[in-house]
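Bug: token stream looks shifted between consecutive jobs. Job 1:
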Amino acid sequence: MLALRRSLTRALAAPTMAPQVCSSFATGPRQYDGTFYEFRTYYLKPSKMNEFLENVKKNIHLRTVHSELVGYWSVEFGGRMNKVFHIWKYDNFAHRSEVRKALAKDKEWQEQFLIPNLALIDKQESEITYLVPWCKLVKPPKEGVYELATFQMKPGGPALWGDPFKRAVHTHVNQGYTKLVGVFHAEYGVLNRDHVLWWNESADSRAAGRHQSHEDPRVVAAVRESVNFLESQQNMLLIPTSFSPLK
């Protein structure tokens, strides 16, 4: 009896193990890589677009010495005019914090880059995204134009709509209607949102590929499956700046 009491005492005193989380409840493939991409959109004051871009071109080196610029574009079509869009890469959130602290101490960047440009900006937006696990960032073979297609999906995450969305993207790529640069999933900002960055030689080649894809039963079938989980979508045609790493 004494032995039984001691056994029960040890059992009650033992630390409680944390319950294991069943993988079937996950919202999608795990994000193990800390690398993320910050999407920044600046809405410029009317008539200030050229002045802003010239100043950025002249002084962008003051910013890129601190962290990697993936691409910098002016928005040609889609939404509000006088708008620029750029993507910055960070190793993790600690890295971004270190960069922001360094910029706060960089007097040359503040005086030549930040302060002059702030006077030209009407509004700023930031969104944190990850590359989806089944996609790598690909540099296009030559200069062209870019399309950023944004898909607002139903709540539930990639566990609900990830596979149909992936099939829809890959069907466009596999048939050669466009070139895929990257697929990004929002981490901070509007949730359940995916961005697909496409590349085409020109706006006309993009239009031609889109018209052909609409007649392809493989693309139509994949899109019909994915659209069941879609709430809204929008896009922008992006023109790379002369100082953009992605041309």
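Job 2, same session, no restart:
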Amino acid sequence: MVSVGKLCGSRLILQTSNGDIHPWTHDELDFEFLGNVREKDWRIQTNVFGNGSTTRGREERYLVPFDPTQEAHRYSILWTPDTIIFYIDDIPIREVVRTDDMGGEFPAKPMSVYATIWDGSAWATSYGRIKIDYKYEPYVADFSHLALLGCRVDPIQQVDSADRCAEAVEELMSADYAILTPMKRAAMRRFRERYMIYSFCYDQHRYGNVTFPDCDYASSEHTRFGEWGDNKIPPKEVRRSKRRSRKPSAAE
């Protein structure tokens, strides 16, 4: 669980990465808390990199119906050889399914867990209009109840890791959090409809007419986003409920 402090103009990142071992071909999965202005809705970003694909960031951003400086929430990433699912509390908010067309852009090498705080003045708050103010340092984030489930391997040797980890992977893939039931998919769809404010899938200014194999361009979701990838109509649900902190509910 995570509780963060004053982060205007900054980025708190909870991530898995192997950049220290593979600096040019690293894999990465991110939860990013983007610095916020008091009394404004908080934004969280998820991102996926595979095999050093940093020029093709797969960012999604969401407004969240709670204040992470006031209470702790659970942030989880399920990563298997075929699927990535991001969770906030018990709600899946994003699913990435591996396809042959993704090639090496699906994270596949062993990763470690990191937590870092960055100066995000260039873009993190109000598109860079509000900079970090170091008079508020030190910047602090509290983490608790960290759980790492899976198969531990040597990030360099990786000797017989696939065979040795097969049982652990099978156990992960059969767990409740790895199975997106119709109810969970409905909760994920509601979350994305209400709170997602940016998707890389629709950002024509960054990627032109490039299509990504992990984007569902046939869904109704794409009609809500403009050529910059931003939601054409910012979610009203969050704006009406400012400072009313609550957890997303699967039953809503």
